[in-house]
Structure formats: structure tokens, C-alpha cells
Design a protein that fits this description.
Length: 49
């Protein structure tokens, strides 16, 4: 049960980052790592669902 909660928290954090880094106000650093973070999110989603 706790493992699922950890995955959910990780997914939510990554989703929040992707949403924030996709906005016009995003920093250059956020935009730079956005593709890598999105890739991690996709990998996690496909492994857990």
C-alpha cells in the first residue's frame, strides 16, 4: 500500500513539474530538463499502469 502511495506522489510531483515547466514563466533550467522529466514520467506511467 505504501509503495502505491510513493508512486502516486512521484507521478504527481513529475506532472506538476511538467505543467510548471510548460508555462511561459518557466526558467531556462526547467525548460532544459523538461524532456528528460517527461520521459521519466512516461516510463513510470507505463510501468505502473
Amino acid at each position: 500500500m505504501e509503495e502505491k502511495n510513493t508512486y502516486e506522489r512521484l507521478e504527481n510531483s513529475l506532472i506538476e513539474f511538467v505543467e510548471r515547466a510548460s508555462k511561459q514563466e518557466a526558467t531556462a533550467e526547467e525548460v532544459e530538463v523538461l524532456p528528460a522529466v517527461a520521459n521519466v514520467l512516461v516510463t513510470i506511467l507505463f510501468q505502473t499502469h
